[in-house]
Amino acid sequence: MPAGTDEGGSPREGGGSASSGPALTQESVEADVAQALEAIARAGDLDGLKEARLAHAGDRSPLAQANRAIGGLPGPEKAAAGKLVGQARGRVNQALGRRQQELEAERDERILVEEAMDLTVAPGRRPLGRRHVLTVTAERMADAMVGMGWEIAEGPQVEAEWFNFDALNFDKDHPARQMQDTFFVEPAKAGLVLRTHTSPVQARSLLERGVPLYVAVPGKTFRTDELDATHTPVFHQLEGLAIDEGLTMAHLKGTLDRLAEAMFGAGIVSRLRPAYFPFTEPSAEMDFRCFVCRGEPTAPPCRTCGGTGWIEWGGCGMVHHNVLRACGVDPERYQGFAFGMGVERTAMFRHGIADMRELIEGDVRFNAQFGMEI
Amino acid sequence: MRVPVDWLGEYVTLPEGVTGEQIAADLVAVGLEEEGLHTSGVGGPLVVGRVLEMTPEEQKNGKTINWCQVDVGDANGSGEPQGIVCGAHNFAVGDLVAVILPGGSLPTPQGPLTISARKTYGHVSAGMICSVRELGIGEDHDGILVLPRLLPAEVVARLAPGDDLIGVLGLDRETVEVNVTPDRGYCFSIRGIAREYSHATGAAYTDPASLPVDRGEGEGYAVRLADEAPLEGIPGCDRYLARVVRGIDLTRTTPEWMARRLTEAGMRPIGLAVDVTNYVMLALGQPLHAFDLATLGGPVVVRRARPGERLTTLDDVDRALDPEDLLITDGGERVLALAGVMGGEDGEVTPGVTTDVLIESAHFDARSVGRTSRRHRLSSEAAKRFERGVDPDVTAAAAQLAVDLLVEHGGGSADPAVTDADQRPERPVVDLDLTLASRYVGVNYDLQRVLEILRLIGCEVQGEAADRVVTVRPPSWRPDLTDAPGLVEEVARIDGYDKIPSVVPRAVGGRGLTHGQRARRAVATALAGQGLQEVLTYPFVGAERFDELGLEDDDPHRDAVRLANPLSDEAPLLRTALLQTLPEALRRNVSRGSRDVALFEIDSVTLPAGEALAPVPGVGEQPDDEVLAQIRSAVPAQPWHVAVMAAGQADRSGWWGRGRPVDVVDVVGWAHAVADALGVEVRREQSERASFHPGRCVDLTLADGTLVGWAGELHPTVVQRLGLPARTSAAELDLDVLVAASDHRTQASPLSTHPLATSDVALEVPRGVRFSAIEESLRAGAGELLESLELFDVYAGDQVAQDRHSLAFRMHFRAPDRTLTTQEVNEARDAAVRRAAQDHGAVQR
Ligand SMILES: [Zn+2]
């Protein structure tokens, strides 16, 4: 407590009624005001000011007593005394108000200083989660297709053998069917497999939606490969199928170039290379120029493309007439193209991922390297 | 297919100085993918050296080394003898040896080893005297390569110290390895690759099959084609040509050049007869078989197997034959071979014993060979070729080449008689509209160019460009060319895929993503926003996992689709719930130090297939509606699910204060977040589910009672069995149910801007009554003015009876059109309390 607060009050402590009070003179009132103002000015904090208020503006303060004493004055003096005391109390109250404001401001400022926190350490109470890089990559690819006016379809992972093979012109005795490393469902006569590619959705879409048709199909596919740095038994593809009048391989190339641009940026150099797939004819592989070495010889050979200068992206071609026939489409009138691009490959090349296993294991540190939009 | 460059150069004119790399690149352009390039790996200087001095020096370790002075001519730049330390002893002063000088390199399994001068055994050894093994030109020899022991005398005579040995030893040879697609069996021969190289580059091609072929005089060895059960109507053998060579010495060694080509092509030289048949197969693509004529008793009969027949094949496996297997038999009885796949022990040639050989050059049906090869899991070089299609017109030339080589290198003479059982069908023709190529590929091909390309690849074409539609007979070596688009592919391929322009088609436009696809994205984003990490786990599980999860014997989740050929016998089933495969991912993260981990996965699960079988009606034709319906319905239901599994801290501790462990309330909250993300209202019902803590599990349902899924804390026993952190909590929801429930346009209600009135009540209720039931009564009692309601405290203790507890609810009231009076609020609250009292015996405190 500031010591000064006592001075204003204690001398009159236990003071009696107005009639027995000191004389009500201009000097005495001025002295009371001066004492009050001094006490107010000396109040160092809000508590001190509260005491000063009690002592100098409270019911038992000299000015309050003086005010009560007015009633005992002779009639003619009352008005002047009233004015004198009223003004005096006004001055004290004003000072109190000002000081109150000052002290509150001081207090507020002090609290803000005291409450300061060092926020330079990363917060981590509830870190944001992440989408998986592969699903986000597949979504980005699908969105690129939507941007070209295509629809997105999907199909079952456990698929009828007919849809996975026969509908796609894989004869049951053709070596290509054996080369698919297929997971078969028991019993053998069930006629079911884990789809080896997203291509069965080509047939499903043609049968369900008819032509003209522009669909892309992201999805999970399966082959009996052991997991290693470049293989996984469970992987993802983005299938594309366009059937219309007058579609050519040039449209196939244009579509894949546009998709490649969406995934890898402008200026991507691509090539089609002859290949074989039972469900396309002509068939091709789509490669793009290695964006690490750009096809220039390096020593040691470029790790990204293995020194070939080209990166394989996926298979494609003009849809085989037998596929169209199996789906009730007239190959004399409609023709079109299909492709299947690896989502893992796309993500690996897009983001420089060297080991397939990091995409598979579900270690949360992996996706934490990426944002939710990659 | 491995293609030794010098062999290729025998059939097609290679440009001067062409590299294997360039050849591989040219072949890629016509569709032969590069698999690799094989070189000796030896880099010069590798020169002839003459050993001038050799001083044996015994070492402390008991080993004796030779300190040699070797004359390497001017190859070392000084002309002075080269000092080299050598540990081998199989050479002598005066010998000509191969010396690799500093700067040269040798192949090692770890990669190229660069030679440099180095201090060893007290000398500076400036190079190495090489062994056959170090140079990679042989395995069986030990010690130093002394040149006269390897090279012909006339070659050695021309060598002088310092002469380059890279070329002399063939260490500059390259072998290109290409991947042959399954439609192009003819590329499993140097002949086929050479033709493709010619197509790719325009280089002049000489068909190695155009050699003078003996027409034969008189009757040859009897052959009978007796396939009484052709597969799909195609005879198992439509041509069988037999030649006989007598009086040959099969103990003679295979000529070095042939052995080297075989080795480079990836086959091991075995003995003259086998080497010659393999050589012809590699050259022309025609698999051959050599029989010991003396062991044959009757005519060669080609027939299908009879029930119960067996054959021990050359790989020493006794095989039960299938009636579909096509056989080569001796007189129709004794089985000699699985036709086109592998021979048996009977009839095999034996060097030193066999003098007369019957050469089989036949054309077997691709389907028949393929099925037999797969049935017996017996892959052979012959089967690989027949399965992909062998040229039926190369049969005679191949036999001739084999006969010529045997006679040349084994002595003996060929019988003048030739057996040619020839039942080749006429090759089919394809009608081709020449303009199709442009319409299909998008390149404006001149029709003359189309014709030119077709003829270039060996097609016979009836008609001219002016006819527009021509009749094309593809070449005998291209059984894959059966339709017009196939011919168009050849035009595009030979003209070059690089000529195809890039044109973005104008799609018809559509709806983009489906509601379900968008909904799954929204759910994933919502969960990730709540701090959960998306994982993608493999869908394979074993029954043991069901035990670990505590599923009852009759739990429907045990009824899973089984794979016939799983990657692991421990996980032959497809998961019926995502929670079955999330534990590994959680465990892996914890073991790698990420202890606070909340995972989610979105994928389809596989419900049991049922008894229905999916018909497999074959290629090229649309099945009728009934068959299509059967196919579709046999495919098991695969609903999309979302699952969550979490352990560790929900709020992490740190400098800001203490953390909070993740608990079942978090998981139930996330399950709700999934429904909220889709704008679907779900209800909760306390439940007991296998795998979950019996008192800490809740079912989520739609308003109409449809089950969406459940959330809870895993049962402590399950947690322990799965090796998960204590109190691991989890949830699994059927996304398809939520997606269907959310597939409508939500209509907005206007918001009231009148003030909110709040009133708290504390109710004592029997402990058995579910919070949700009391909440429901309060809502029902309060009526429409109640905007929301929350349970904010639960008290049990001295102040209430033992079998009861006190629940504190805060009720928020608001009217759409006015400010509520205290009286209105109190009345509504009292009505709510009355209802709770009436329904559950609740008493207001
Ligand atoms: Zn590169």
Q: Can you walk through the features of this model?
A:
The complex is a heterodimer of chains A (374) and B (845). By secondary structure, chain A is α+β, with helices and mostly antiparallel strands. Mean pLDDT of chain A is 88; it is low at 1-20. Helices cover 42% and strands 17% of the residues of chain A. In chain A, α6 crosses α10 and α6 packs across α12. In chain A, 48% of the residues are buried. With 845 residues, chain B is an alpha+beta fold. Chain B contains 23 helices and 42 strands. The longest helix of chain B has 19 residues, at 822-840. In chain B, α2 packs across α6 (190-201). The radius of gyration of chain B is 41 Å and the shape is elongated. The model of chain B has no long low-confidence stretch (mean pLDDT 93). In chain B, a hairpin with an 8-residue loop joins β33 (649-651) and β34. The chains are: A alpha+beta (374), B alpha+beta (845). Chains A and B meet through α6, β1, β2, α7 and α8 of A and α9, α12, α14, α15 and β28 of B. The complex binds zinc ion. Zinc ion binds next to loops of chain A.
